[in-house]
């Protein structure tokens, strides 16, 4: 049915109402509730994933491996590890969950290295879906992954087939944020060329990465901020959870014989812009996109697969099957609905037939009781009649008829 358009009339208020305070109410409620954010890091081992997480949140979530020479014996992440922590800044609580994934290149067969990571992301969607379907949905725990930082080795050439395969598999399930790891070992020119080739590869392979969305009513400052962030993607980052001395000041950075690379200096690397997007300006956007687009796609695929009994949310390439044929999804839903109706009708028929059989049985029993009572009454009357006839015969001085006497005796037995 077509929706009726309700005309919106703009009215001027005659006096104070107070709803200008609504944003403050939301603000107070959010601060009280606290925030939560789940971030995943992925890429080859030894690219500085743990260091960058420590640098981003300015806390030692992972033990520092600074000055530890990397050898084959250096412990590597071989399972998916999750670290949850509560951090606070100016009274605002953030429950931060970091998911560290096994570094690629650590396995005999690296082709399927994306598989356990994709399964982990989908298992988190499943857990959320299961909670949503419960009768009591009051305390839903959201463990869905809101962003995945994908670390690209600073080769300066282009993306490796493994990088492309990983991102192609995950692009429909998570907000991908590619970063060029350890960019301090590349020159500015090398970084510029590398970024260009990475963006071309992503475009050619139809890999969608997270980009700050722009809205029509954005103020000029936000538009400018977004532009500056976009210009830096993929972010060339440097991580360091140590302070070094630069021009007499203590800064977070990496010291070289030729000078210091400062992590928090926008002229030295893109770390500040990455942190700005992830934490300061776009955390809520990342969460909204996860909830409204990535999770919704997964959820509808999963439900369609359950109704049709075929396929599954984790098809060849996640996300593709849903986008491919919306009509067949509609048909699947219709078939499922028809099947449900037919089942309900059959159940109702069975109940009705059972009720009719019970009633018929009851009627039969009471009919038999009626017959038995009728027979009893008839026999009692016949007995009375014979007695009276015998009495009459005795009074008249003649014996009762032999049959009648016999019958009479039989009745007394
Ligand atoms: P992960 O295995 O990816 O988690 O890597 P780690 O964070 O453990 O870092 C591996 C090594 O790289 C450590 O020795 C770090 O000090 C070093 N490292 C981390 N980030 C950087 C960086 O931005 N530049 C350079 N040159 N080295 C880094």
From TrEMBL:
Gene Ontology cellular component list: cell cortex; septin cytoskeleton
Domain of life: Eukaryota
Ranges where the Septin-type G domain occurs: 33-305
Biased composition (Basic and acidic residues): 389-405
Chain spans, region Disordered: 389-413
Molecular function as annotated in GO: GTP binding
Keywords: GTP-binding, Nucleotide-binding
SUPFAM superfamilies tied to this protein: P-loop containing nucleoside triphosphate hydrolases
Any one Pfam family match given in the protein's UniProt record, by short name: Septin
Entry keyword Zinc: no
Family stated for the protein in its record: Belongs to the TRAFAC class TrmE-Era-EngA-EngB-Septin-like GTPase superfamily. Septin GTPase family.
The protein's name in its UniProt record: Septin-type G domain-containing protein
